[in-house]
Every structure is written in structure tokens, then in C-alpha cells.
Design goal:
By secondary structure, the protein is an alpha/beta fold. The protein is built from 13 helices and 11 strands. The protein has 2 domains: 236 residues, Aspartate Aminotransferase, domain 2, CATH 3.40.640; 113 residues, Alpha-Beta Complex (Aspartate Aminotransferase, domain 1), CATH 3.90.1150.
Length: 379
């Protein structure tokens, strides 16, 4: 039986196991000192003043939009080329997600010109997604936000360690939101993080994260509070110390894991140059050096070619996926205007395996799916 090559896999070893065991032995599992430590170290890593860890990136996005006081009648401009959580988190507040097209198949990021055309008096925020770990045009988007008095929220779920010339993902928006789901670059199983330089927004997100209570369980455990008030209708978006402990270990490994991801993307690029009829990898080799290289998207010549690749991969024991089905086409968001560039991209994109534990020979195995043998080691 052929060994399966997964689409992604976490890079865990004894360090993660020991970190989790230490939490279990401590007897304190819910949000506490490790959470605070991880928040601080992660915020420093991404160039932000403060972090607010949450139970997921979806929760982090909801906290961000709630802290901005979004509600019915408000609109947030988002890309359709994203996971549904981006739009759902807007809708949780009662606000409406408004979907913008991408720049092109070569640059599948939200198009600032498309965003500009969608701004109305109801628009309250813009939420770009750093797709695949490549940072959106934050200069243009910030200019639009400043001109119209809008908030800028980074959906940086793909992007811990990604950078732009202006700075790292996580430092470019009013609030930035990260994911630590099991297929992400930094893995805690579940979990997410908001980062921000705005003390008021940070305080509001921390309050909303734990039921709107003025004191946490850890505060009471330490004797820093004997009771609490509830001053807002908040949520139960608290992370656990187990996730924070994993996050601290993973954060220490992140630079090395990013370097390996970038090297693997380079191997894919060199190999696919031998088979241009297979399609192309979006963005550029120069851009890879700034990217967190979260996923490896291949844009095939047409939808039929995409399905041929997926069928051949399945037969060879190679897992593939699609990132993403356009969110604006889901039933829950109907009716919507067409987004032709997003729709064309989504019909032709296939996601190939990419994770730090891949061997060079694993890249060769994927490249062997294509019509002409394309070795990853091409100079």
C-alpha cells in the first residue's frame, strides 16, 4: 500500500509533549500565566504592542469586529477568496460582509481598486486576507481607511512570520487576527490571537473574551480578586493553558519552520518551470522570501486540468485540496454579484502538500504527477 503524503502536518516533538505535560502537572488548565506569556511573546514577534489569545481565529475575528462596535446596518469589505470564518465573524455582529474581487490569478489578494468601488456610508472596516501567507497591499488599503475613517483588520490566519516592506503581518492593521489551527504554520490544535497597538481595543477584546467579566478565574485563584462584575454581554472565547504551552514551543521553532517552507516552495517553483503546461504558482519567487508560505497553490490552465491533477494525486496517495470555494457563492450569503476573477481562480486552483517535515523527495513525488518528469533539485 502506498504511503499517504498529507497536505499538511504539524512539526511536533518531545518539546511539545513536555510542555503539555507540565501544564497537566500544574493543575491549572484554563487561561492563566502561560496564556499571558504567549500573548506577550507572540505580539513582540509580530511587532505589535499586545496580544489577546482566543479559542480560535474565528473567535479572534469576532472579538475584533465586536470591539469595533459593528452592528446591524454596518458593512465590512472582505475578499471572497478566504475561509468562510472571515465573513461569518462579520455577520456575528449583525453587520454585513461585502465581497471584493482579487487582483488577478497571479496575485490572488483583495484588490484595493475593487475595495474602493465598494465603499459606502455604511462601510465601517476593511478586512484583507493575507492569502497563502503573502501580505495584501496594506499601503493602498490603509490609505483608503484613512481617507474614509475606516478600521483596518488583518485576517492574518495564514501569516505568522510573513512580512511586507512596511512591516510584519500583525503590525499593519488596527487589529490583526491569527490562527493556530492544526494545519497552520504555528500549531496549537485550536486557538487564535488578536494583536493591536490600541490599548482601548485590547482592553475591550480581553473583556469580551471572558463573558464581559471584570476579573478572570486566574485573578481569583491568585487572590487578586474576590468577586467580579459583568459589564458587557461577552463570550466564552478563552483559550486553555495547554494551547498556550504548545504555542510557546512552536513560536520558538517558527523561524526554522518558515525557512523550510520557503525552501520547499523554491523546489516546487524550479520543478514546475520544467512543466509550464501544468500551470503556475501565484506570486513570485522574490515574494516567497517575505511570505510565511502557508499553502502551495497551483493555478492550472482550466478546471478540467485541475480535476485531472486531483485524480492523479489521489491515485498516487498524495493529498490535495482547494483554497477556497468562493464565499460569496455559498447559499447563506445569497444573492451576490459575480466576482469573475475570484471565480476563475477558484475553478483552476489546486493546493499541493506543503509543511516543514516534508523531505525533498516528497516534492519530487508531487512533481511526478505532472506530464513531464520535473525534479525538485533543478538548479
Amino acid at each position: 500500500m502506498t504511503d499517504q503524503l498529507p497536505l499538511s502536518a504539524p512539526s511536533f516533538d518531545e518539546a511539545e509533549a513536555q510542555a503539555v505535560a507540565d501544564v497537566v502537572r500544574s493543575g491549572w488548565l484554563t487561561m492563566g500565566p502561560r496564556t499571558a506569556q504567549f500573548e506577550g511573546e507572540f505580539a513582540t514577534y509580530v511587532g505589535s504592542s499586545a496580544g489577546v489569545m482566543a479559542s480560535s481565529c474565528t473567535a479572534a475575528l469576532h472579538l475584533a469586529f465586536a470591539a469595533l462596535d459593528l452592528g446591524p446596518g454596518d458593512e465590512v469589505i472582505v475578499p471572497s477568496l478566504t475561509f468562510v470564518a472571515t465573513a461569518n465573524a462579520v455577520a456575528y455582529t449583525g453587520a454585513t460582509p461585502v465581497f471584493a474581487d482579487i487582483v488577478s490569478p497571479e496575485v490572488p489578494l483583495i484588490d484595493p481598486e475593487a475595495v474602493r468601488a465598494l465603499i459606502t456610508p455604511r462601510t465601517k472596516a476593511i478586512c484583507p486576507v493575507h492569502y497563502a501567507g503573502y501580505v495584501a497591499d496594506m499601503v493602498a488599503l490603509r490609505a483608503l481607511c484613512d481617507r474614509h475613517g475606516l478600521a483596518l483588520v488583518e485576517d492574518a490566519a495564514h501569516s505568522p512570520g510573513a512580512r511586507s516592506p512596511e512591516g510584519p503581518a500583525g503590525s499593519l492593521g488596527d487589529i490583526s487576527c491569527f490562527s493556530f489551527f492544526s494545519n497552520k504554520n504555528l500549531v496549537t490544535g485550536e486557538g487564535g490571537m488578536c494583536t493591536s497597538d490600541d490599548e482601548r481595543l485590547v482592553a475591550r477584546m480581553r473583556l469580551l473574551r471572558a463573558h464581559g467579566m471584570t476579573a478572570t478565574s486566574w485573578d481569583r485563584e491568585r487572590g487578586h480578586a474576590s468577586g467580579y462584575d459583568v459589564v458587557e454581554r461577552g463570550y466564552n472565547y478563552r483559550p486553555s493553558e495547554l494551547e498556550a504551552a504548545l504555542g510557546l514551543v512552536q513560536l520558538g521553532k517558527l523561524p526554522g519552520m518558515l525557512a523550510r517552507r520557503r525552501a520547499l516552495v523554491g523546489m516546487y517553483r524550479r520543478g514546475l518551470e520544467r512543466v509550464p503546461e501544468a500551470g503556475f504558482i501565484p506570486f513570485t519567487a522574490e515574494g516567497d522570501a517575505l511570505s510565511s508560505c502557508h499553502i502551495l497553490p497551483l493555478v492550472t490552465p482550466d478546471p478540467e486540468a485541475r480535476e485531472d491533477v486531483r485524480a492523479a494525486a489521489a491515485a498516487a496517495g498524495v493529498q490535495t485540496s482547494v483554497h477556497y470555494q468562493p464565499v460569496h457563492q455559498f447559499k447563506v450569503f445569497q444573492p451576490q454579484e459575480s466576482l469573475p476573477i475570484t471565480e476563475d481562480y477558484a475553478r483552476r486552483e489546486v493546493t499541493l502538500p506543503l509543511y516543514p517535515g516534508m523531505a525533498d523527495s516528497d516534492v519530487d513525488r508531487v512533481l511526478d504527477l505532472f506530464p513531464v518528469r520535473a525534479r525538485a533539485g533543478v538548479a
